[in-house]
Amino acid sequence: MRSRAEKIGASKEWTTAALLGQMTLNLAQTTVARDLFDLTDEETAWMQIVPYKGSLPTAVPTDPLIYRWYEIINVYGMTIKELIHEEFGDGIMSAIDFSMDIRRESNPMSDRVNVVLSGKFLPYKSY
User: Fold this and answer.
1) Each residue of 63-81: pLDDT tens digit?
2) Phi and psi torsions of 76, nearest 5°
3) β-pair type (112-123, 91-105)
4) Contact 120/97 with Cβ under 8 angstroms?
């Protein structure tokens, strides 16, 4: 996926999200995607429309990998929230001004999945 993403001009993470219908590609990106994946006119047009964000079909995901992410948030979500608030104050981490990097991390016991999420902090305003 990395080489295809480079041709599209974005990260493998963003490109994968776009190809799964979660991001909007510009005309140049859809032209490249059309050639890479032999897309139809209709498929190409849909890639340029702002999507409805969110792709989980049920309240509790049944796919094992996605369920583990759900489990991580269930177990560590409040910890993450408290630590972000302690470090930054009252606010949220943006999923709009956001980047993600997924890499394989070698480990003699068993390879690890290394995920780095980076989102802009947006403080709540008083008014």
Assistant:
1) 999 999 999 998 889 889 9
2) -110, 0
3) antiparallel
4) yes
Burial of 51: CB neighbours in 10 Å, binned 0-12, 13-18, 19+? middle
Expressed as residue numbers, the domain containing 118 is 90-127
What's the pLDDT tens digit per position in 100-127?
999 999 999 999 999 999 999 999 988 8
Helix (H, G, I), strand (E, B) or coil at 99: strand
With respect to residue 18, please indicate whether it lies within any of the assigned structural domains: yes
> 12 in the Ramachandran plot: left (φ > 0), alpha (ψ -120 to 50) or beta?
alpha
- The catalytic residues are 68, 71, 94
Has residue 6 been placed in a domain? yes
- 75, part of any domain: no
